[in-house]
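> call design_seq(struct)
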């Protein structure tokens, strides 16, 4: 099936054994003016499979993927969404207008910044086609994913379940160590 912002929403037969998403876009799928080429995905068993590619013309989209289609797959082409949604552990959840120059950090700042309990290291972005990318860190240097139209940024809370050592446990460990040193010295 083909659904969303396409010239004709319909169900088509799979014409060969190795019929791919590229074949479907070449043979039958034409986009409309307000189709999002960044948001194309195949829905299989209620799971989004992101389809990246490029818009060759107003109506023609060329996928990079050779994903073979199976009976029951739904090719979804959503409407262009010129917003960014910021949710989770931020000062104020927001929906912003998309600007080409906006970065991951600027979008979060536009929501008032992160909350006290935010875990920015585990923050991630979900693109319109379902693809998710997380914040990467290499030797303490953070790399933030690119923001695209229709994206949703999510900042999770820090885990409350961390195995932190309490003051009582530290006193207990210290007392045990002092006792062991005293025993060793007495020999």
């Amino acid at each position: 099936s083909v659904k969303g912002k396409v010239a004709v929403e319909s169900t088509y037969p799979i014409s060969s054994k190795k019929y791919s998403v590229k074949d479907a876009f070449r043979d039958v799928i034409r986009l409309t003016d307000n189709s999002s080429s960044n948001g194309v995905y195949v829905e299989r068993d209620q799971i989004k499979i992101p389809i990246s590619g490029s818009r060759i013309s107003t109506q023609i989209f060329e996928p990079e993927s050779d994903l073979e289609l199976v009976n029951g797959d739904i090719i979804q082409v959503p409407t262009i969404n010129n917003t960014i949604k910021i949710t989770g552990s931020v000062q104020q959840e927001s929906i912003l207008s998309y600007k080409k120059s906006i970065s991951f950090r600027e979008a979060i700042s536009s929501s008032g910044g992160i909350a006290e309990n935010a875990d920015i290291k585990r923050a991630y972005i979900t693109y319109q086609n379902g693809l998710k990318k997380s914040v990467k860190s290499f030797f303490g240097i953070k790399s933030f994913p690119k923001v695209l139209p229709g994206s949703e940024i999510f900042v999770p809370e820090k885990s409350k379940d961390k195995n932190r050592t309490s003051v009582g446990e530290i006193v207990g460990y210290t007392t045990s160590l002092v006792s062991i040193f005293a025993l060793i010295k007495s020999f």
